[in-house]
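Throughout our pipeline, every protein is held as a single compact record rather than as scattered files. Nothing more is needed to write down the fold, since each code stands for a local backbone conformation. The record that follows is passed on verbatim for readers who wish to inspect the format.
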Amino acid sequence: MARKKNILSQIESSQLSPDKHKPLHNDDAKHESNWTFLSNHSHVLIALSKNPGMVLREVALLVGITERAVQKIISDLERDEFISKKKIGRQNIYKISQEKKLRHHLESHKSIGDLIQLIIKT
């Protein structure tokens, strides 16, 4: 129960809805839309950069997608070496390859670390 409250507080603090990909507070409700500028892959990376030991169920709640979708994204990110995982007991700890370049040619001059720094408040 405490873990669920923690996830819900993270969702609230990030201003993301757990079941929709839109802000919790929208000043212009008549022009609502479900799309976001960042992909679910980006959202998963950002969540793991905030908490490298977060379990996939928590990532799914935070991002607003299914746990299975998170597993697929983690698999993609591991396969392409954007993240690696280390198992400590029953917990996975994820390490993000901050130096890896973004994949699209329009943004390939920037790294994963640049994206994370842009999004995460320090």
